[in-house]
Amino acid sequence: MKIEVLYNEVANLYGDIYNIKYLEQTIPNLKIYYTSLNEKPKFITEKIDLIYMGPMMERFQEIIIKKLKPYKEQIKKLIENDTIFLITGNALEIFGLKIDKIEALGIFNYFTKRDFTYHHNSCFIGKFKNMDIVGFKSQFSYTYNNPYPFIKVINGYGLNNNEENEGIKYHNFFGTYLIGPFLIFNPPFTEYFLKLLNQKNEIAYKKDVYKAYKIRKDEYLKYIEKFKNH
User: Which helix (H) or strand (E) holds 213?
Assistant: First the structure.
């Protein structure tokens, strides 16, 4: 199995690269390509099972858009053909139409507005299929007009403060503002994700990550209940 990590030298805030480190500890004989800004993506010439990109400082978004623009049609084809993408934090904005006035890749029809006067931080809990999803959000930007929602919000922000859904899911493209790292925080989703990758291995440290997941989920639910009563 092959994973390509795009631009890890700049797209690696909040320790999100541990999404990949965790998969590395779970899946034997895993080949990981760390593609730098000065390299052509491996997905151009090789079959890649999972393409990953993490969050970055805003000034790097335009640089990455320019790097990926020549491969826009190839990316669209991969998505339509069910290649698996995991895109976390503000990296998901790159695949929309615009980030403010910056033209993005235009693969999806959503758009993003930045607001540096309002830095949103919050705990999040939501629902995907029959799974509770937990995470943390830290963002200056907010996305609108997404036709392909990923997670139904139970408590917290969606893609923006008026949105009841968080993230984007289209075919096997998963994009979410949740940071953390997402896969370690959400073992039920990680087990679902492994099945998509045709992997039968048990997730690493299963007992411990499920214990941490339950504690985090219970704390979030207690906070929600406390907030409702005030």
Answer: helix 206-228
